[in-house]
TrEMBL record:
Coiled coil: none annotated. Residues 2-73 form the Amidohydrolase-related domain. InterPro entries: Amidohydro-rel (IPR006680), Metal-dep_hydrolase_composite (IPR011059), Metallo-dep_Hydrolase (IPR051781). It comes from Catenuloplanes nepalensis. Pfam families: Amidohydro_1. This is Imidazolonepropionase-like amidohydrolase.
Amino acid sequence: MHEELALLTEAGLTPAEALHAATIAPARVFGLHDRGAVTPGLRTDLLLVDGDPATDIHATTRIRHVWIAGTRVV
């Protein structure tokens, strides 16, 4: 997935647009209304990374912590 995000930015998307394409957009397309955004009431799967992936897509490879369904697993 990290390589695909980088390829999306190489193809012309901004890092923020690439993140949107990997999170909110597929959730909507596949009808997964309980996920895709950090919003109260939605399923919470999160990555905490070193850096700002909205400006540097390679920050997604520098994972510090992972939460699945609101529970920290790494």
